[in-house]
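Worked Example 4.2. Consider the chain below.
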Amino acid sequence: MTTEPQADALAFRRALGNFATGITVVTARAPDGARVGVTANSFNSVSLDPPLVLWSIDKRSASYEVFAAASHFAVNILAADQVTLSNHFARPSEDKFEGIDFSEGLGGAAILPDCAAVFECERFNCVEGGDHWILLGKVERFTDAGRPPLLYHQGSYSLVMPTGSAAATGEENRHSAGAVGYSGGNLYYLMLQAVRHYEADYRPKQLATGLRTAEARMLLSLQAHGRLDRDTLSAQVNMPRDDMQQAFQELIRKGLVCEHGNTLELAPDGSRLADTLWQIARDEQERKFASFAPEDIEAFKRILQQLSNSPQ
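Applying the procedure from the previous section yields the following structure tokens:
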């Protein structure tokens, strides 16, 4: 369906969410010592020579004045295990750095530990872009830890999963048949391949219900637990705060969820759709594992559960 952005701003935002991005916390300190940090997924590279990057901030943001006054800002690229930091800096707070471990970089901008990468930038330019300011920075130094990044996709947090070409897959399958080499003997690689094949069939069936994956998880969580307050539900489905609010409103608008103050519960239509989602999951599982003996499936479950609960 083709829609004009002005006709449905929420649908436009949801469509933009199909473009997967990394998640950053951008920090700065003004000359008077005021310190700010905001979660942003608008970061992008601009130029190698000179080394320029950009990100954008809502014109209504209370943090903008500090970024406008600061000589530098730091872009902290969050790693996959830093969801808590993303949520923390996305929430309004009088002092976002209370209880947060950080060091000072160029211009006093906060450098967060254990990030995938950090870019310390001199403020280069500021350009108006609709309802946002676009801030360009000249990278003066950077740190590359190479940790797996935290991603944002379709309104929820995601992780990187490597993929290969069709030609490579054929070669990999030939190796796998003989159980030789990296592809045939490496368990991590085999798990990735298995998940990719499972998702290729399962995800389209789930999306055919008209729900994004995170929205589907919300319905299933409400079905399993009954009424839940917004904070508890947010923690269970692992979505950024602003996108969670948008998802709440979308599910309420569709008549799938009922609102009771700060708590939510399934409406009758939502309960029926949750049943459909569970049935899709069960049918796909039965189809995928039909050729395996029950004892093999139980052994597989035990292995996955032990891996999931093993110390980091």
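The longest helix spans residues 187-207. The CA atoms of residues 248 and 257 lie 8 Å apart. Compare this with Example 4.1 before moving on.
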